[in-house]
Amino acid sequence: SPEYRAVLNGKAGEDALPERQLEAGEPYRFRLMNVTMGSPNLRYLLTRNGQPVRWTPTAKDGFDLPSYQRTLETADQHVGIGETMDVEVKLNAGSYALELRGGGGGLVASQKIQVIATQTVAQQIASAVLPMPEGLRPGATVLGYREAGKLVELRKGTNGMICLADDPTSPAFHVACYHEGMEPFMARGRSLRAEGITGDQVDTVRFREAKEGKLKLPTVPAALWQMSGPPGSYDAEKNEIKGARSLYVVYIPYATEPSTGLPAKPAPGIPWLMFPGTPKAHIMFIPTM
Q1: Are 184 and 215 in contact (CB under 8 A)?
Q2: CB under 8 Å to 26, separation ≥6 — which residues?
Q3: 3-28: b or e for each residue (b if 16 or more CB lie within 10 Å)?
Q4: Of the chain's two ends, which shows fewer C-beta atoms within 10 Å, N or C?
Q5: Distance between CA 92 and CA 94 in Å, rounded?
Q6: Alpha carbon of 93 to those of 45, 117, 179, 262: distances in Å?
Q7: 113: closest CA among 26, 4, 194, 229?
């Protein structure tokens, strides 16, 4: 409507809304508000695949509803001018959208929501070691998450390999294992990203620190194994990744085409050298290109 501008999470317009991540099976309360001057009948819908799911109204205008009104119902709530409505919902893993529609039914804004299925410690360990050959899996150290966003050691290893469990805040599935000689380089990357440094700037800092002798690099070739999959691809019960893509890497800092005899351009079915001549130089092996 030209009479008002809808705002979700402080930003206007569908394209300006970042995707939100929630945990599957956890209760969440949404507060639905109408602070417009010209739309007496805003509609909020929580949908999956275009169809409303179900939620439970819990409060109106800041006052808790009586128990007989707290019943599970279709997630399609009308909110009048000046009104607020609180609803509670538990969702299964998947992609959802919190839609805001005007009185005529037209879509005003849509908040994308990705619900992530959290894994137990045992499941994180089992999935984290999948990229490696079976003989290396039992002895690997595993880093994972007891709380979202906090990477901790879940298991101490014995064979010099370190595996990273899937990040529950990321919709896609990704696990990786690498030789302990790469840990200073990898850990520095994680700390820089936690500081808000992104993209090529991460390597800019690491390369500079490596050349200054502040960042230790492996002194012998160091392997990395990883597997990735689309959202929802990991089956925790079967410990399987559907549609997984594997990648194998051997890091050789400062390696070049002449020093390895490998090309610096990828081609189907052959290994190649990426980032030649840099602290991040590594041989790429991609099973399927």
Answers
A1: yes
A2: 90
A3: ebebbbeeeeebeebeeebbbeeeee
A4: C
A5: 6
A6: 18, 5, 33, 43
A7: 26
123: left (phi over 0), alpha (psi -120 to 50) or beta: alpha
Residue 18 φ/ψ, nearest 5 degrees? -75, 150
DSSP-based three-state secondary structure for 192: helix
H-helix segments, 56-97:
none
Joined together, the tokens standing for residue 25 give 């099976």
In the block, which residue shows the tokens 């959290």?
118
**CATH code of the domain made up of 7-116:** 2.60.40.420
The residue to which tokens 């005007």 are assigned: 102
Strands (E), 49-106: 51-52, 54-60, 63-64, 73-74, 76-79, 84-90, 94-101
* Residue 229 neighbours by CB distance under 10 Å: 18
pLDDT by 10-residue block (mean), the chain, 289 residues: 40 56 84 86 91 94 93 94 94 86 84 81 95 98 83 96 90 93 97 93 97 96 96 86 93 98 93 97 84
φ and ψ at residue 55, rounded to 5 degrees:
-140, 175
Give me Rg for the CA atoms of the chain.
24
Residues in the chain: 289
